[in-house]
Design goal:
Shape: globular
Largest sheet: 8 strands, mixed
Cofactor: [4Fe-4S] cluster
Family: Belongs to the DNA2/NAM7 helicase family.
CATH class of the domain at 518-735: Alpha Beta
Helix content: 25-40%
Pfam family, one: AAA_11
Distance between the termini: 67 Å
Number of helices: 31
Strand content: 15-25%
Structural class: alpha/beta
Bound molecules: adenosine-5'-triphosphate
Enzyme class: hydrolase
Domain DNA replication factor Dna2 N-terminal: 71-223
Length: 920
C-alpha cells in the first residue's frame, strides 16, 4: 500500500538488532493524508489518484506542522532510507510505496518493505538533469540555477549532436540532418565566431559514432525506438526528457568520450532516474544505455581502453533506490530553503571547472562554500533583496509544479472546464514533414474557449498526458481543427497546457545577473541609494502635447532611468516611437522590449509610422510570435553564421519580449538604453532581464492597470515600475491627455484611478459618439442606450461564475447595436470569468470579441459591454482587483454598457460610485 502524509515532528534514528544483524531505522511521525490508510487495491501499489488529498498535501503551513500530533502515526523507514529520513523536517510531505501496516500497542503503524520507495516532497518535481548536477556537487546544481546555460561552443555542438541523433532515429540521412541542423543554429554559431563548416565537422565526428552503432542493430522492428520522450512522475516527483527510449529502456547520449568499460556514474544516475519514471508507467527496465559519441572517433593508436560508444549497465534495485534518495535531497533542500555548501558531497574542488564561479558567488552572497569565498559580500540590503526574491521565484516554481499535479489530480472534464485542456479531439492524421518532424491534425468536438493560442507549446497526448503517449507540440492552427507540429507522430486525442518552468528559470538568472553582475550605478538606483539624474535638453520633441514632450525629454536625457506613466489611450506607444526616434538620431543602440509580443509589435509599428528605417531594426522572436505584417523585421536565425550575426549586431534597434531578453542569444548583446513597455505588468526580476542589457533604462506602463502575472502571492506582485514611480516621482511623467474615450466615458476612471488628472486630448476626442461612425445613428437606438455610458440592471441568477440572464441580455444588446448600424467587429464584451465568457460566446455571433479583461488590455473598441456576474453581497471585488475594472471601463471609444445586478454592485463603494456615474 502507499502511505502519504505530512511530517509532524522530529525524526528518531535508532539501531536495532534483528535476525539479519544490526539495522538502522528512522521513526517518522506523520499525519496521514486522507484516504491513505485504506488498503490499496491497485496491482502495482502506486496509483492512488485521490483528488481529496490535494488540500491536505499540497500546502505546507507552519500551523499544520505545529498542530499537536494526536492523529500522527509512526512511519518507520528501514536501512538506507534512513538517509532520506535525515533530510526530513516537520511540514514536509512524505510518500512510502509498498508500505506494510502493523498494529503495535493498539496503534496502526507503517514501515518500509524491501519493495518500498520513499519519496520526500513528491509534489516538487525535480528535473532529472538537476540530479545529475547534484551528484557531482550540490553546489553545482545551485550555481546552474543561478547562472543558466551560457552560450558556448560545447553547449551548441552538444545540442546539435542531440538533434542529429533524434533525426537518425527518425530515419533521416546523416548529411542532410547535419546540414539542416547547422543551418538552423547559424546565429548562435556566428555569435561564437564559428564557421558552419568547422561546426559540421565536429558534429559529424560525434554523429558518426552514433550512426555506426545504430547500423549494428539497425532500427529493426523489435528495436522499437523513439527519440526524446517527456517523462513525468507523479509518485517519484520527477520530470525530464529522455534522449531516447529503446525497447522501453532509456538511452542517454553524451557528447564526449569515455574509455572505461562502465558508463560514468553521473550518467548512470540520469538513466536510472528515467528508468524509475518508466517503471512507474508500467515498464520493467533491467538495463540502461549510455552512448558516448566521441569514442569511435578517437585514433585507435593513441588511446587505449574500451572504444565502444554504447555502454550498457544493469539497472539494479540498489541504484534505483540510491538515485531516488538523491532526488529526495534536492526536494528537501528546496523545501527547507537552505543553500548547499558543497560539503555534502566528496567532490574535489581542485578539479572543478566551476570553482572560480563558485567562490565568487559564495563571496558575493556571503554563503558558506567548500571551495571558499572570494570578493566582498554585497551590502545587507542587497543580500536581503536577493534572498526574498529567490524565495519568491521558488514559490512561483512550486505553482508551476502544482500545475503539473493537476494533470493527474483533475479529470479530463475538469481540465476542459478550467481551460487547461481540449479533451475531445478526434485524431485525423499524422503527416511527416521535411526534416522528420510531424504535422498532427485532429478535429475538435466542441468549440471550448481554452486559453490556447496559435504558437503555444502544448502537451499533445493520446488521451493520457502522463503515462500515455505524450509529446511537446506547437499549435500551428486552431479553428475547428487543431494542427500541431511535433517530433513524434502522437495520435493526438487531447492537448494540455504545458506548465513550463522556463520563465521561473530565467527570473532567477535575471536576479542573479542584476545583483552580481549589475552595474553599480544601476544598483544605486534599484536600491534607492541615489536619485536618477537627467541631462537637461532644450529641444521640443512633441509640439501638441506637453506631457508627452516632457516624457520624451526625460527618456532621452535620462542618465539612469526615466519612468513614463501612461493611462489608457494617452499615447504611450506614440511617445515610445518619438523617444526611440530621438535616440536613433543620437546614434544610440536601443533595446525595445515589453511583456507581450503584441506590445513589442505595436511599438514597432509605431516606429515604422514615425518613419524609422526598417533596416535599422531586428525583431528577435519566433515566427508565430511576431505579427505577420512585421515578419520582414524578424531576425532570421538560419543561414550563414556571419551574415546572421551581422544582422543582429548591426541593428541599432533590437526588439524582443522580456522573456526573450533572458535567452542565450540576447544575453550576449549590449545596449545604450533599454525601453520597456507594459512595465507595470512585469515582476521586478522580469524587468531586470531587459535592463541588465543596457546602460540606462526607460520604463513605460500604468500601475493602475493589470499587475504582473504571477501565481504566488509574494514580492513578485509589485512591479519594479510601481516601486520606482513611488520612490522617484521626479524621474516620472504622467501622460495626461487621452486620445480614446468620449468625455463621459473617461470621467469615472479619471476620478477614481487618476486623481481626476486624465483629460481628453482634443475636443474631437471629448465629443466622439457612435454618430461619427459610417451608417450608425444613435437615434436608431432605444432612448436608454443613447448616452455614451449606460447601465442595464439584471438581477443575478445566483451562480458564482456565470450568469445566464446577463448573457441573454448581452445577446439582445448586440442585436440592438447591429440594428442601429454598428459592425459586429466593433463591439467587445468583457466578462470576469472564463465560464461567463463561454456562456456569452454561445449566444452571440462569432465576430463579436468576448473575453476576459486580461485579453483586452492594450486594445480598444468602439463599443464595450461589461458583464459583471455579481450577485448577493459581493464577497470580494468581482474583477478581483480594481485595476481590472479600470482596464475594462477604459476600452471603449464611443459607448460603454454595464450589465449587472444593481443591488449586488451597490454593496461595494467603488461599484456604487460607478453605478452613480453610469446612471447620471
Ligand atoms: N501627440 C499626439 N498627437 C496626435 N496624435 C496622437 C498623439 N499621441 C497619441 N496620438 C494618437 O492617439 C492614439 C492613441 O495613442 P497610442 O496608441 O500611442 O496610445 P497608448 O497609450 O499606447 O494606448 P494603450 O493605452 O492602448 O496602450 C493613436 O492613434 C495615436 O496616433
Amino acid at each position: 500500500m502507499k502511505v502519504r502524509g505530512t511530517v509532524v515532528g522530529e525524526v528518531t534514528m535508532r539501531t536495532v538488532s534483528t535476525s539479519a544483524g544490526e539495522r538502522e531505522l528512522a521513526e517518522v511521525p506523520v499525519r496521514l493524508a486522507d484516504g491513505t490508510t485504506a488498503a490499496d487495491g491497485s496491482a502495482d501499489g502506486t496509483a492512488t489518484h485521490d483528488h481529496d488529498t490535494d488540500a491536505a498535501t499540497s500546502t505546507r503551513s507552519a500551523v499544520e506542522a505545529d498542530r499537536p500530533d494526536v492523529d500522527a502515526t509512526t512511519v518507520t523507514l528501514w536501512g538506507k532510507w534512513t538517509e532520506s529520513a535525515d533530510v526530513l523536517e516537520p511540514g514536509m510531505e512524505l510518500v512510502v510505496t509498498e508500505a506494510e501496516r502493523d498494529e503495535f500497542r493498539g496503534e496502526t503503524q507503517y514501515a518500509t518493505t524491501t519493495d518500498s520507495y520513499v519519496v520526500v516532497e513528491p509534489s516538487y518535481l525535480v528535473d532529472v538533469t538537476d540530479v545529475r548536477n547534484w551528484v557531482q556537487c550540490p553546489r553545482l546544481y545551485y550555481l546552474n540555477k543561478l547562472s543558466g546555460v551560457p552560450l558556448n561552443y560545447p553547449v551548441v555542438t552538444g545540442t546539435l549532436v542531440h538533434e542529429v541523433f533524434g533525426d537518425l532515429l527518425r530515419g533521416r540521412d546523416l548529411d542532410a540532418s547535419i546540414d539542416e541542423r547547422i543551418e538552423e543554429r547559424a546565429l548562435e554559431l556566428g555569435l561564437l565566431g564559428e564557421s558552419a563548416e568547422s561546426a559540421a565537422e565536429d558534429v559529424r565526428q560525434n554523429a558518426a559514432a552514433i550512426e555506426g552503432w545504430l547500423e549494428q542493430g539497425r532500427l529493426s522492428e523489435e528495436d522499437d525506438w523513439r527519440s526524446e520522450q517527456l517523462l513525468i512522475s507523479e509518485t517519484f516527483g520527477l520530470k525530464g526528457r529522455a534522449d531516447a527510449i529503446r525497447r522501453g529502456a532509456p538511452v542517454e547520449l553524451k557528447t564526449g568520450k569515455n574509455l572505461r568499460k562502465e558508463p560514468r556514474f553521473k550518467d548512470k544516475v540520469q538513466a536510472a532516474l528515467y528508468a524509475l519514471v518508466l517503471e512507474e508507467h508500467g515498464g520493467s527496465i533491467d538495463t540502461g544505455t549510455l552512448l558516448y559519441t566521441k569514442n569511435s572517433a578517437l585514433d585507435r593508436n593513441e588511446e587505449t581502453g574500451d572504444l565502444t560508444p554504447a555502454k550498457d549497465f544493469s539497472m539494479g534495485r540498489g541504484l534505483l533506490e540510491y538515485v531516488l534518495r538523491l532526488r529526495n535531497e534536492i526536494a528537501a533542500m528546496e523545501a527547507s530553503g537552505t543553500v548547499p555548501t558543497g560539503k555534502e558531497a566528496d567532490a574535489k574542488c581542485e578539479y572543478c571547472f566551476e570553482r572560480d564561479t563558485c567562490m565568487v558567488v559564495s563571496g558575493r552572497l556571503d554563503q558558506e562554500s567548500k571551495a571558499g569565498q572570494v570578493g566582498q559580500a554585497l551590502p545587507e540590503a542587497e543580500l536581503d533583496h536577493f534572498e526574498r526574491f529567490y524565495r519568491a521565484i521558488e514559490e512561483e516554481r512550486r505553482e508551476v509544479h502544482r500545475e503539473y499535479g493537476k494533470l493527474w489530480e483533475q479529470t479530463p472534464e475538469e481540465r476542459a472546464d478550467d481551460d487547461r485542456a481540449i479533451v475531445d479531439l478526434e485524431f485525423v492524421e499524422a503527416r511527416e514533414l521535411d526534416g522528420g518532424r510531424w504535422e498532427l491534425r485532429a478535429r475538435r468536438g466542441s468549440s471550448g474557449t481554452a486559453k490556447f493560442r496559435e504558437g503555444d507549446l502544448v502537451l499533445a497526448s493520446d488521451g493520457e498526458p502522463v503515462g500515455g503517449d505524450a509529446e511537446l507540440a506547437r499549435i500551428e492552427r486552431l479553428d475547428e481543427d487543431v494542427v500541431l507540429t511535433a517530433d513524434e507522430p502522437v495520435e493526438v486525442a487531447r492537448i494540455d497546457i504545458y506548465p513550463s518552468e522556463l520563465t521561473t528559470d530565467r527570473l532567477l538568472v535575471a536576479l542573479h545577473d542584476a545583483l552580481l553582475k549589475g552595474d553599480e550605478r544601476r544598483k544605486d538606483i534599484l536600491f534607492e541609494r541615489a536619485e536618477p539624474e537627467f541631462e537637461s535638453l532644450d529641444e521640443t520633441f512633441v509640439g501638441n502635447n506637453a506631457a508627452q514632450d516632457e516624457a520624451v525629454r526625460k527618456a532621452v536625457g535620462a542618465r539612469d532611468c526615466a519612468l513614463i506613466h501612461g493611462p489608457p489611450g494617452t499615447g504611450k506607444t506614440y511617445t515610445i516611437a518619438r523617444s526611440v526616434d530621438a535616440m536613433v538620431e543620437r546614434g544610440e543602440r536601443i533595446l525595445l522590449s515589453a511583456f507581450t509580443n503584441r506590445a513589442v509589435d505595436n511599438a514597432l509599428e509605431a516606429l515604422l509610422d514615425a518613419g524609422i528605417d526598417p533596416d535599422r531594426i531586428a525583431r528577435v522572436g519566433t515566427e508565430s510570435g511576431v505579427r505577420s505584417d512585421l515578419q520582414h523585421l524578424r531576425l532570421e536565425r538560419e543561414g550563414d553564421p556571419d551574415e546572421r550575426v551581422r544582422a543582429l549586431e548591426d541593428a541599432q534597434i533590437v526588439a524582443a519580449t522580456t522573456a526573450t531578453c533572458g535567452s542565450r542569444i540576447m544575453k550576449e548583446q549590449s545596449f545604450d538604453v533599454a525601453l520597456v513597455d507594459e512595465a507595470a505588468q512585469l515582476t521586478e526580476p522580469g524587468t531586470y532581464a531587459a535592463i541588465n542589457l543596457a546602460e540606462r533604462f526607460v520604463l513605460v506602463g500604468d500601475h493602475h492597470q493589470l499587475p504582473p502575472v504571477v501565481q504566488a502571492e509574494n514580492e513578485l506582485v509589485e512591479s519594479l515600475f510601481e516601486r520606482l514611480v513611488e520612490t522617484y516621482p521626479d524621474a516620472g511623467v504622467m501622460l495626461d491627455r487621452q486620445y480614446r474615450m468620449n468625455q463621459r466615458i473617461q470621467a469615472f476612471p479619471s476620478r477614481e484611478f487618476y486623481d481626476g488628472r486624465l483629460r481628453p486630448a482634443t475636443p474631437a476626442v471629448a465629443s466622439r459618439t457612435l454618430d461619427d461612425l459610417d451608417g450608425v445613428s444613435r437615434s436608431a437606438l432605444p432612448a436608454d442606450r443613447r448616452d455614451p455610458v449606460t447601465f442595464v440592471d439584471v438581477p443575478g441568477d445566483g451562480e458564482r461564475h456565470t450568469d445566464a440572464e446577463e448573457a441573454a441580455r448581452i445577446a439582445d444588446l448586440i442585436e440592438t447595436y447591429e440594428a442601429a448600424g454598428l459592425d459586429r467587429e466593433d463591439i467587445g464584451v468583457i466578462a470576469p470569468f472564463r465560464a461567463q465568457v463561454s456562456e456569452i460566446e454561445r449566444r452571440v455571433p462569432a465576430d463579436v470579441t468576448v473575453d476576459t479583461v486580461d485579453r483586452f488590455q492594450g486594445s480598444s473598441q468602439e463599443v464595450i459591454v461589461v458583464s459583471f456576474v455579481a450577485s448577493g453581497d459581493l464577497d470580494g471585488p468581482i474583477f478581483e482587483d480594481y485595476r481590472r475594472i479600470n482596464v475594462g471601463l477604459t476600452r471603449p471609444k464611443r459607448a460603454l454598457v454595464l450589465v449587472g445586478d444593481a443591488e449586488a454592485l451597490e454593496s461595494d463603494p467603488v461599484y456604487r460610485r460607478m453605478l452613480d456615474w453610469a446612471r447620471s
